[in-house]
Amino acid sequence: MSIVEDIGAQVRAAAEELPLAQLAAALEKFGQATERLRWVRQESANPMGVPELSAATEHAETAGYALRVAQEQLSAYLAAIGLAADGAPAPKATDRRPKHDAPRGEVAPPAPGAGPDRDEQPAVRRWWAVRVAELTGGREGAPDEPDERVEDSRELLRRVVTGIRAGDRDRLHRELRRAHADVGLGLAAIAPPMLRGLAGELLGHPPRADDLGRLRRELDGRVRDLLPGLPPPVLDTLLTRVCRMPPPRRGADQEQPHAADPAVTAGVVTGVLLDRLGRDLPRDTDDREPSRG
C-alpha cells in the first residue's frame, strides 16, 4: 500500500466514523420528546423543559449541517489526492465538482497566460448558489467566482446585514449567492444565538410563547419580500425557537428543509431585526462566542 493509499484509508475511516447516524437518532428522540411535551403542555402553562429541549434540537441540527459539510470536504480531499470514496483511483474525466462550492483555498489560481480548461463545464450548477437563487426569487445567472474576502460566516453575516439595512435587495442576494457553501451554512450556527436577544429588544422583554404572533406580524412581510421563495415552515420553525417553543409539526407530505434554508433565513432575520432596531451588527460579534442562552 502506497503512502497516498494509506492516507486515503485513514481519511475514509474518519469519514465513516462521523456520528451522522447517532445524531439522526438523537434528533428523532428529540422529536418524540417534543411531541410528548406538546401533549402534556395542553393542560399546563409550566414550560417543563421546553426551552432546553428547543435549544438542544437547534444545536443538534446545526451540528448535523457541520457534519455533512465535513463529510463533503473529506470526500473532496480524497478526490484531490486521486482517490475515489471507495479507494479506487478517481476518474479524472468525470471529476467536475463545482469550484464555487469547494472548500476555500482548494482551487489553485490559473497559471499566468493559461486559458480555461477546454473540458471544464462553464455553467456547472452550484448547489448553494442555485438554492439562494430559488429562495431570493432570482435567476442563477452566469457562474460567479466566490468572493475570497469572505473568509468566515461572521463576515458574510455582516454583509447580509449591511445589504438589508441599505435596502439593497440585489446586493443582499449577490452576497449570499457568491458565498462559499461552508461559509453560508455557518450562518445557521452564529445567527440564531443572537436572535433571541434582538427579538427581546424589539418586544421589550424576553420572547415568550404568546409573542409568536407578534413576531410573525413584525417580521414575516419583510422576510417574504427578501426571500419570496422561502418555504413558510422554515421561518415558523425559527421563530418558535426564538420563543423557546417546540417547532411546528411537519406533515407527512412535507419534505425536510433544504440545508441552506435555515442558514439563509437566520441571517436575513438577523438583518431585519437589526434594521427594525436601527442598529448595525455589533463589532464584538467577531470576537465573542455565541450565547448559549
UniProtKB/TrEMBL annotation:
Biased composition (Basic and acidic residues): 93-104
Chain residue ranges for the region called Disordered: 88-123, 246-266
Highest rank taxon of the organism: Bacteria
Name of protein: Uncharacterized protein
